[in-house]
Amino acid sequence: MTVPHGSSVILSGIGAYAPEAVLTNDALSRMVETSDEWIRTRTGIRERHIAADGETTSDMSTEAARKAIEDAGLAVQDIELIVVATVTPDMPFPNTACFVQKKLGLGKIPAFDLEAACSGFIYAMDVARSLMLVSGYRHALVIGAEKLSSITNWDDRTTCVLFGDGAGAAVLSLSEEPEVGILDTLLGADGTETGILCVPGGGSASPSTVETIERSLHKIHMQGNQVFKIAVRVMCQSGLNLIERAGLTSQDIDLVVPHQANTRIIEALSSRLDISMDRFEINLDRFGNTSAASIPLALEEAYRKGRLKKGANVLTVAFGGGLTWAASLIRWH
Ligand code: ACO
Q1: What is the pLDDT of residues 270-279, one digit of tens each?
Q2: In this predicted model, what pLDDT tens digit does every residue of 238-258 receive, in sequence order?
Q3: Is 34 in the pocket of ligand 1 (CB under 6 A)?
Q4: Closest C-alpha residue for ligand 1 atom 33
Q5: 8-178: which CATH topology?
Q6: 224 Cα to the center of ligand 1, angstroms
Q7: Which residue minimizes the CA distance to atom 30 of ligand 1?
Q8: What CATH class is the domain 182-331?
Q9: Domain parsing of the chain, residue ranges
Q10: Each residue of 106-142: pLDDT tens digit?
């Protein structure tokens, strides 16, 4: 199908899903040697949602997707493409998007996963948008979903306090209204830093054995300090570069929806971008870091609160394992 020249891609619907169970800092401090005070002051996190046993990434994705499709005023059968961003697929293969396709009762439309850790949702939006503008898909489902509790080492206090589960979804739709929707995206990665944030076991480099499991190599390993420093640098740079590339200034940005990893990272971003904290959407106090689900969960909250008004310039910016980073500029339709 030919796409009319000047078409844009808008987020026509948004949905989110948070598992019912909530794990508070106090409850965590009964599991490992930590405290509510340490977690709150170092990260800003108070609690996180944890998926039930047997509840999968595709289950959460499907719930969020249903809400996004309803919000867009579409029927499920209008969806022509599914991209799921996740580091916690239901299985190594088939991809999670195929499970979502089946659970939604969709036809034989293309469905695939994309793995860029916490930057995954912005990467996935850009890939879906590009496919839509080139190949003419009219409505695509882009989902960021994680069951990080399944790869968290619950004995490691330096990581287990950070993560949570959830899913967010957006329906991307072609629009003939110019200059709205996703205006521009900046993607990047630094493969020299693969070792500072990873799940080292269970892949082809180190297939699962009794020994890899005993050493918890199938769980998240992170050098928090290193990640923190690089996160601040790359998030600030990509945010600033994107604003400049669009011919805008910080003052033109109505809302920033950052990856929700740590309040101190977001405060550094606020200061370097010269955008006050009241123009940031923050939900990490209640969700922790949900990796690829983080941005769509926060975007959905901003939407529900009425912060995404027509014409608003919204900056999303993320970093994650890889290391990867990504920023996108969305003008609300
Ligand atoms: N409770 C109590 N004490 C703790 C805890 C805890 N949960 N965790 C660490 N400590 C201790 C450490 O052992 C250390 O003690 P020491 O000084 O006696 O050695 C002390 O607290 C300070 O530890 P630091 O690691 O220096 O603490 P820092 O201020 O750097 O905060 C944190 C750690 C929160 C992890 C921070 O580095 C951070 O947020 N990093 C970025 C993490 C991130 O965003 N990762 C993205 C992952 S997402 C993805 O792609 C899946």
Answers
A1: 999 999 999 9
A2: 999 999 999 999 999 999 999
A3: yes
A4: 224
A5: Peroxisomal Thiolase; Chain A, domain 1 (3.40.47)
A6: 5
A7: 225
A8: alpha beta
A9: 8-178, 182-331
A10: 999 999 999 999 999 999 999 999 999 999 999 999 9
Question: In the block, which residue shows the tokens 């969960």?
Answer: 297
Q: 3-state secondary structure string, the chain?
A: CCCCCCCEEEEEEEEEECCCEEEEHHHHCCCCCCCHHHHHHHHCCCEEEECCCCCCHHHHHHHHHHHHHHHCCCCHHHCCEEEEECCCCCCCCCCHHHHHHHHHCCCCCCEEEECCHHHHHHHHHHHHHHHHHHHCCCEEEEEEEEEHHHCCCCCCHHHHCCECEEEEEEEEEEECCCCCEEEEEEEEECHHHHHHEECCCCCCCCCCCHHHHHCCCCCCEECHHHHHHHHHHHHHHHHHHHHHHCCCCHHHCCEEEECCCCHHHHHHHHHHHCCCHHHECCCHHHHCECHHHHHHHHHHHHHHCCCCCCCCEEEEEEEECCCEEEEEEEECC
**Pair of tokens at residue 323:** 């290391």
